[in-house]
Amino acid sequence: MTDSLSPSSLLDRPCRHDALLTLPAQEAHVSAARHFAADLLEAWSVPASERDSAVLIVDELAANAAQYGREHMTLRLVLDDGTLHIAVTDSGMAVERHRPDIASDEHGRGTGIVQYLAQSTEVHQTRGGREVRACLRCSP
User: Fold this and answer.
1) Is the Cβ–Cβ distance between 92 and 130 less than 8 Å?
2) What pLDDT digit, counting tens, does each position of 58-114 carry?
3) What is the side-by-side order of every strand in the sheet holding 17-24?
4) Which of 74, 102, 113, 128 is the most exposed place for a label (fewest CB within 10 A)?
5) Contact, 59 vs 34, CB < 8 A?
6) Coil, strand or helix: which one is 48?
7) What b/e sequence results for 20-51 when a residue is b if at least 16 CB atoms lie within 10 Å of its CB, and e otherwise?
8) Strand, helix or coil at 96?
9) How much is the pTM?
């Protein structure tokens, strides 16, 4: 006997959506990442309040990738079973947390905003750069 899904159980399962966008790691491209996310999440029927939070997360992560990445940044959005997974990868190296040459009122709020809005966040150093992930629950 094989374990297979019946057509009715396929209809009951939440739909998985997955999208990827790669851009040069430059501040001029942060708005493109933000608009891509906003348009895509609207097409995926993510409710407006959660979409706004997700777009703000994308904006902050893309801005960091543009500031610290060297060549490119990649945005991946996955909506699966009511959870939106946001991952931004850049080609930069790990960033020192405290930089005395930058005023605290000018920089450093982005990660705090992301941590406040997301249910979870992770930062991973990869062979080619850095990946920051954030998860956000989305109501059906």
Assistant:
1) yes
2) 999 999 999 888 889 999 999 998 999 999 999 876 554 444 444 444 445 677 888
3) 17-24, 72-80, 83-90, 129-137, 120-126
4) 102
5) yes
6) helix
7) ebebebeeebbeebbebbbebbeeeebeeebb
8) coil
9) 0.79
Q: Is the pLDDT of residue 46 over 50?
A: yes
Would strands 120-126 and 129-137 be described as parallel, antiparallel, or unpaired?
antiparallel
How many other CB atoms sit within 10 Å of the CB of residue 114? 23
Q: Cα dihedral angle (34, 39, 40, 45), rounded to 10 degrees?
A: 130
The position carrying tokens 């005023």 is 103
Instruction: Reduce the DSSP state of residue 91 to 3 states and report it.
Output: coil
Asked whether 29 and 66 are in contact (CB, 8 A), the reply is: yes
